[in-house]
Amino acid sequence: MSYLSRVDEYLHAAPLSGATGQQVGPFTLFRSTTVWPYYARPVPGSTATVTVADLEKLRARCEELKLPLSLEWVVDTCPSLAPAAAEAGLEVHEYPLLVLERADFTPVTTSLDCQILTASPDVLRQARAVADTAFGTPGTAIGDGGPEARDVTAAGITDDMVAALVERAEAGVSITAGVFSNQGMLASGVHQPVGTTSEIVGVATLPAMRRQGLAAAITTRLVEHALANGVDLVLLSAESDAVAAVYERVGFHRIGRAGSAELAE
Ligand SMILES: CC(C)(COP(=O)(O)OP(=O)(O)OC[C@H]1O[C@@H](n2cnc3c(N)ncnc32)[C@H](O)[C@@H]1OP(=O)(O)O)[C@@H](O)C(=O)NCCC(=O)NCCS
User: Fold this and answer.
1) pLDDT for res 46
2) Nearest-CA residue for atom 3 of ligand 1
3) Domain boundary among 96, 120, 144
4) Same domain, yes or no, for 89 and 114?
5) Do 146 and 189 share a domain, yes or no?
6) Which of 186, 223, 246 gets mutated to test ligand 1 (max ligand atoms within 8 A of its CB)?
7) What 8-state DSSP symbol labels residue 207?
8) Contact 126, 185 (CB under 8 A)
9) Could you give the residue ranges of the DSSP H alpha helices within the chain?
10) What's the 98 CA to ligand 1 centre distance in angstroms?
11) Structure confidence at residue 149 (pLDDT)
12) Residue 152 counted as domain residue
């Protein structure tokens, strides 16, 4: 099976740890069973051209179920979706899609403590706070948010969210890594194995702590964990070319593009 087909199959299976899937035309609509929303995806392997009518049907079903209309897909395996989504008035984005196999791996380490986290509520709350703080300052530049901003963010994370994170960690469907200094957690990231494939998501470094190799170290630790636990293909989609460069340093290479679409604000 080609990289793209395998990645597509993985991306169709992974949401099922937090959602149920239902068929709506050429799409599977994932309906969340947890605290964060999911999206729809085209069914892997379909060669049918996606039309604006298909998207209108999906939009109607989302309205019935009171779900936000949003889509994620592999652009290379469903090339008709981006133009149809744009024509249907959705905002379309494309991101570099990368993979790594064992032979590609070039570990990057840090002198700080970089470890796989236990399923502890306090620790997972910190990791989520690092991610929320970092994603509030997108891009790769150094910025203002440091440990204080992280702690303010942590206090605002709901107990339901923390419980959902603990549940996923205990089930082994989300494995989180964190980098620590004497100021607490500075960077975090997650991998989500399904069988022999895993995706790295949510890699994040507090804005004030960027450009010290912490994201590369987190990615390294997650890849090591995945490869040591039966995974032989790790994938991820990068926010931008600049972010993709962080992963390319660890050995990831580009295989295509990931697409996303949602209603414009
Ligand atoms: C993307 C992100 C995770 C990178 O975190 P980071 O810890 O700064 O990443 P690294 O330090 O490993 O790499 C960043 C850059 O610093 C450089 N660098 C690494 N160690 C360095 C050091 N000791 N001295 C100087 N530069 C260094 C890297 O070479 C890289 O350079 P490049 O931008 O020219 O490729 C961070 O910017 C972030 O949280 N952004 C917002 C959230 C986000 O977009 N996450 C990714 C989702 S896909």
Assistant:
1) 84
2) 204
3) 96
4) no
5) yes
6) 246
7) G
8) yes
9) 3-13, 52-65, 81-87, 121-135, 147-155, 159-171, 214-228, 241-248
10) 17
11) 98
12) yes
